[in-house]
Specification:
heterodimer, A: mainly alpha, MetI-like fold, about 85% helix, B: alpha/beta, 6-stranded mixed β-sheet
Chain lengths: ~220, ~260
């Protein structure tokens, strides 16, 4: 098909599979690290708040490919042999946790202060207020921007090409070297990225609309 | 000004039978930064009494009310609520909150919970009621505010007046000894204030001790045993509702005259 064999397209799909795997690892890791970051950002403790703020600003101030290089080559200097998948997953975790932490901090703060106050006046403890009053409302606010950020995660996994991780972009690059059909191959790769991202943005949009309707 | 502020019309004398006041302010002071909002308040509210705090915005009436359940910390004087000294070393804020209900101007219902869940959240989590107990409790307090049929509605499906009545029911479900109302009808359309005031009036008739900040003069005169006119952070005049017909100070006369 267009000078590229079905097997070769299958090679691209293989790459796409690893793009999805890396995206999921980045999202899960980003959630595990990002949630405490969000909580630390809103904490009243000076140290936690400051520390998490420095973390977020530091990570957000470094380009993702450089984070990839640092994790992949930097760590191996100290005798740890990291394979590309682990290095890419760690880099994606660092990257997405900094952004998700900031997104979720905003969502928690978007719940009106009067809700904390109402819970406080009903003699609920701090933890009870957070779990039963604030968190459910913050989660609802958080769904659209979180799903929206998933799209960023998927697209940015392509930077893992710099450390030679076999993802969709990398497989397209290899295939191009073999076939010299850059237009066909990179267009096919673009379509696959789009096929992964488009449903996510649609989903985010639908959630957003539903949220607005509820609040209207 | 200082001469008038020392007027002796206020601070009703506690009855002689030894009953302790439910709320007792003694020279209570409160500042926000350099701004002194309460400049020495003295006030007693006896069990079963309804006290209405009136005055212009900025007079300190809402701040005084918020001090009663510890939403604002006082900077000076003594404040005793339900027998607890709020400045005592062993004072437990949460224990006080179990006994003092408050209703806000903006309802502050939990939007993600149904009316019944709003009402029963604190009784279940704080007082440990089980499902059957809390369901019965919800039925009881919703009946009290006339919203039995709205138990499974969400706050957004209710009118402002109905939401405010749910907020009252939510407070009542904690079986408070004292209820505070902070301008609870100020956000409502005139035709909706009546239904909320009727609920409060019914509570008053039932013997609930209450302190309310209100702009509804006719209502204050009608239900309050004690009307407290606050001005510039002080209790300027206090007495029975009839006080409003015969103000002793220029400020109260102007305030009543302004038709607020």
């Amino acid at each position: 098909m267009l000078g590229v064999s079905l097997d070769q397209y299958g090679f691209l799909v293989q790459g796409a599979f690893w793009t999805v795997v890396l995206s999921l690892m980045g999202f899960v890791g980003g959630t595990i690290v990002g949630l405490p970051v969000a909580l630390a950002r809103i904490s009243r403790g000076w140290f936690l708040c400051r520390l998490s703020s420095v973390y977020v600003q530091f990570v957000q101030g470094i380009p993702l490919p450089v984070i990839m290089f640092v994790v992949y080559f930097g760590v191996s200097i100290y005798g740890f042999d990291v394979n590309a998948l682990v290095a890419a997953a760690i880099a994606m975790t660092l990257y997405s946790s900094a952004y998700l932490g900031e997104i979720w901090k905003g969502c928690i703060q978007a719940v009106p202060k009067t809700q904390w106050e109402a819970g406080e006046c009903l003699a609920l403890t701090n933890l009870q207020r957070f779990i039963y009053v604030i968190l459910p409302q913050a989660l609802r606010i958080a769904v659209p921007p979180t799903v929206g950020f998933l799209v960023q995660i998927v697209k940015n996994t392509s930077y893992s090409v710099v450390i030679g991780f076999f993802d969709l972009t990398y497989s397209a690059k290899i295939l191009n070297n073999a076939t010299f059909k850059p237009f066909v191959i990179f267009t096919a790769a673009a379509l696959i990225y789009f096929a992964i991202c488009f449903p996510l943005s649609r989903y985010a949009r639908r959630f957003e609309l539903r949220l607005h309707r509820r609040n209207a | 000004m200082t001469v008038i502020s020392m007027n002796s019309v206020h601070t009703p004398v506690a009855p002689q039978d030894g009953t302790q006041p439910m709320v007792s302010f003694r020279d209570v002071r409160k500042s926000f930064g350099a701004l002194e909002v309460l400049k020495g308040i003295d006030l007693d509210v006896m069990p079963g009494q309804v006290a209405a705090l009136i005055g212009r915005s900025g007079s300190g009436k809402s701040t005084a009310l918020r001090c009663i359940n510890g939403l604002e910390k006082i900077n000076g004087g003594e404040l005793t609520v339900c027998g607890r000294n709020l400045r005592a070393r062993d004072f437990e804020l949460r224990e006080l909150r179990k006994e003092v209900g408050i209703v806000f101007q903006s309802y502050n219902l939990f939007p993600h919970l149904t009316v019944e869940q709003n009402v029963t959240l604190a009784p279940r989590k704080v007082n440990g009621l089980d499902a059957a107990e809390s369901h019965a409790l919800a039925a009881e307090v919703l009946e009290q505010v006339g919203l039995s049929d709205k138990a499974s509605s969400y706050p957004e499906q209710l009118s402002g007046g109905q939401q405010q009545r749910v907020a009252i029911a939510r407070s009542l479900a904690m079986r408070p000894k004292l209820m505070l109302f902070d301008e609870v009808t100020s956000a409502l359309d005139p035709e909706l204030t009546g239904e909320v005031l009727r609920v409060i009036g019914k509570l008053a008739a039932g013997g609930m001790t209450m302190v309310l900040v209100t702009h509804e003069m006719a209502f204050a005169r009608q239900v309050a045993d004690l009307v407290v006119y606050m001005h510039q952070g002080r209790v300027w005049e206090a007495g029975k509702g009839t006080m409003l017909d015969d103000p002793q100070t220029v400020e109260l006369r102007q305030f009543v005259g302004s038709g607020l």
